[in-house]
Amino acid sequence: SSVREQVVFGTVLFGRMHAGAGADRTLGLFINTLPVRLDLDGTGVEASVRTTHARLSELLAHEHASLALAQRCSGVAAPAPLFSALLNYRHNTPAAMAGGGTDDVLSGMEWLGGEERTNYPLTLSVEDFGEALGLTAQVAEPVSADRVCGYMQHVLEQLAEALEHAPNTPVRELGILPAAERTHLLEDLNRTAAAYPSERCIHKLFEQQVQKAPEAVAVVCEDERLSYGELNARANRLAHHLIALGVRPDQPVAICLERSPAMVVGVLAILKAGGAYVPLDPGYPSERLRRVVEDAAPRLLLCDAAGRAALGPEVLTAVTVIDLETATPGWAERPASDPDPRTLGLTSRHLAYVIYTSGSTGTPKGVMVEHHSLVNLGLAQIELFGVCSNSRVVQFASFGFDASAWELVMAFGSGAALHLPADALRQASNKLSDYLRSEAITHATLPPALLQASRDPGYLASQVLILAGELPKAELVRSLASASIVNAYGPTEATVCATVWSCPDDFDGSVVPIGRPIANTRVYLLDGHGAPVPFGAVGELYIGGAGVARGYLNRPELTAERFI
């Protein structure tokens, strides 16, 4: 089983077949190593075995050709090796298999032992005893030789079975994983099922906290503080206004504001009205913002002065603009009561937001995430990170980045306070560290690059520090020993986060793992043909479960390709 259609490995040749008369009785090092190529395409096992036999037979005519010559003829420039695995097939006697044949062959001599060495990461020796085969592997750490021999035995058994009963079976379909390991990879590591209110919309988690403690602090931004009750009332009035303007479930509503309580009010209002919020960071390039608005085609836009300036008059004239900075809002007299999702026809299977990818691998794509996916994420992270009503969560991520949704649901799903630092603080690590300490922040999600650039990254640590957005270096993680460190991984298409890893106190690894899947999430590492790869091998990550998004907005072909 392999991602590659062609595999090249080295094989050891006896070297005496074409060495002339008497070569079989002459002492000396005749053996040679040359490359062999296998095609792992749709060719059946019988045809593949015959082809391989023919290639090996042809190779015997060149058994004295040097490996350096083969390298030059291959077009693979040194020092890149032609192959990294070696197969040594040796004929032996049945007596040797029993462990007593060596002394008989070397009469009068005592065999004390021996040690084989290899210059390759993997060397597999096959001992042909006539009626049985023996396998010996030499491998580089951390791979286990026993595992390699076990894989080889499993493949040989499948090959023999296929040759007898299904000779047209493609050779690439011969699995190398024994049943126990396959079950462990596909099932045991993905036992993440957990009960959660999948029928609930994300803003209902917030409203639940409002009922519990309406006077508790919900938002802190510089000198302004809003309680859960105040925030809910403001969001409700705006939500009723949006409903009156025609907002319906699954309808995109753009929102472009600076980091402020009004930004939070706007997000909650759109959710309560049944719309899908499309976050636009006014700090992003205007051209990117215009492309997003053009693709999402929202009828309504919530903004402030910074949003107006970033979008420009051309965009503003194409949508209905609602200015959240107005001193006398037209929705001030609207009801402060929670809109009823049933009246709106809103369910947890409707969209909560559409967030656009960075576009680092091409054109930015609008990822459509439903309410139930965000509910699962919020409840999972609250449990994993120990977030409670006494917690203080910093809202660091750019509003246009999906981690901003992660931070909002982490706080509002648990009754915690959400702290919004000014952009000037976010962009300077020394000022941010002072902010985290002065505000007694308990939970922060920060990019490793920010910590890496800091003279003393430990100052940026909160009680729980979540690293996200890029792979952190092991040295950085060890330097943050004063905090509880978590590495979070996940694409936007899997609702922000799919796996988490909690750093142990004695971590001494060279690579920071991405960890295990969160609740109701499954991850699979597969090869190019969709088969699971062995534990520790390289493959492509597939993610399933409650967090998988609906797809890409206006991109049905790409959705069909990526969401299987």
TrEMBL record:
Signal peptide limits: none
GO biological process, one term: amino acid activation for nonribosomal peptide biosynthetic process
Annotated AMP-dependent synthetase/ligase domain residues: 206-553
GO CC annotation terms, alphabetical: cytoplasm
SUPFAM superfamilies: Acetyl-CoA synthetase-like (SSF56801), CoA-dependent acyltransferases (SSF52777)
Domain Condensation, residue spans: 4-186
GO molecular function term, any single one: phosphopantetheine binding
InterPro entries cross-referenced by the UniProt entry: AA_adenyl_dom, AMP-binding_CS, AMP-dep_synth/lig_dom, Condensation_dom
PANTHER family found in the cross-reference section: FATTY ACID SYNTHASE (PTHR45527:SF1), NONRIBOSOMAL PEPTIDE SYNTHETASE (PTHR45527)
Protein name, per record: Peptide synthetase
Organism: Mesorhizobium alhagi CCNWXJ12-2
Lineage, opening ranks: Bacteria, Pseudomonadati, Pseudomonadota, Alphaproteobacteria, Hyphomicrobiales
